[in-house]
Amino acid sequence: MMGVLAIPWLLHHMGAERFGLLALAWAFTGYLTLLDFGLGRAMSQQVAKYANHADSEKITRLFWDAHITIAGFGLVGTLLILAVVPLAITHLPNINSDIHEETARALWFTALMVFPTLLLNSLNNFLLALEQFTWLNVLKVPLNTLNIAIPVWVTAYPDSQLFGILDTTCLYLLIGRSGFILVMFAVCAKVSPAIMQLTTFSYAYPKRLLTLGGWMTVTNIVGPMMTYFDRFFISVLLSPQAVATYTIAYELASKLSAIPNALTTTLAPVFAKDCDNQKDNIATIVKSIQWLSVIFIPVLLLMPMFITPLLQWWLGIDDVQVMAASVHWLAWGFYLNAIALVAYTYLQYIGRPDLTAKLHLLELPLYAFVLWLCLSTLGIKGAAIAWVIRAGIDMLFLLVTVYYLNRPLQQSHATL
């Protein structure tokens, strides 16, 4: 919610181009969580299983082996990204020459954000596996607030700017995320004191996690790619200013995802612990989809009545027709994505990440083509329409997969 309130301020004080570039920095760090090669999610799935049997020894070994391995991957990945930053700086597309140097420094700081982001993501997965939902929500608020509070602070207090607006913001975000690792680790140690009993590193657990996480890695690569593709396509085919317009629409529509995210966060450890209880799991999926539909559909049907005046009041501008249409399209996409997320979580946490990975590999080239076609012909609104098409296909594929995976169960009930 703070992001929604702060966007008009940031757009006014940063300018559309800087705000668009900041949105790309957020997208870049979010996408590169793939560098944990699925270990974070694989660890979460295994820890949830062992937590059901109160096996603190295995949980401790999983925690340290996974995080040491992720830290190693993060370090190597960061070094590789830093090596290509100079090349990226020389090929910055559609950037105003006045902020070229500022953007170049921001790229360096953004590259360094990858390492702390990987560790934060992994610690979050550990708390998720232990069903520490209260702590997850308590930690989520200040961590997410950093993304908005820091650029607001930098623009509100010019004396805090060590360089320009954009690069100073990225530097402070790097410092904030790095410091938050200690906070999250302290919480993990509080809820699971056994992890403070350090163990020697073993190759057995990382090998097992990588085997499970291999397919999760494919999803970690392709899934975020489809999520963030649109902004990178817009920056190349249109401009950073267009990224800002689309990001505002996406930010507003994305608030609808809070409900399915909270729901699937709760369901994930349940699916992992009761992965053999197909009947109850399927009933849970069906009930979840029904409740999501009850919540989403009235909002979506009423949205055309209030979205345009809301945007005009919120941003203080009259010409918001394209943005309003994009918000409405994206909102339908988030509804379809909410349903898909339930099926996706089920497949991931019953130990079948291979199925979601294969489906995403099939969807990727189709989405890239549809996105290019819609963006080229319809502009910013086209990117929103392409996102809805992608979400719909993803939902359909995942639900059909869950259905066929549980078909033997349904046939046995029919026989009885």
In short:
The protein is mainly α and 416 residues long.
Describe what this molecule looks like in 3D.
The protein has 416 residues and is mostly helical. It contains 16 helices and no strands. It has helices spanning 2-14, 16-31, 39-52, 56-90, 100-112, 114-129, 133-156, 165-191, 204-237, 240-253, 258-273, 278-315, 321-349, 353-378, 380-405, 407-415. Helix 9 (204-237) packs across helix 10, helix 12 (278-315) packs antiparallel against helix 13 (321-349) and helix 14 (353-378) packs antiparallel against helix 15. The longest helix is centred in the C-terminal third of the chain and has 38 residues, at 278-315. The protein is globular and about 55 Å long. Residues 412-416 have low confidence and may be disordered.
Main beta-sheet annotation = none
> How much helicity do the residues have?
over 70%
What structural class should be given to the helix and strand makeup?
mainly alpha
* Proportion in β-strands: under 5%
Series of secondary-structure elements, N-terminal to C-terminal: HHHHHHHHHHHHHHHH
**Alpha plus pi helix count:** 16
User: Tell me, what's the shape?
Assistant: globular
Oligomer: single chain
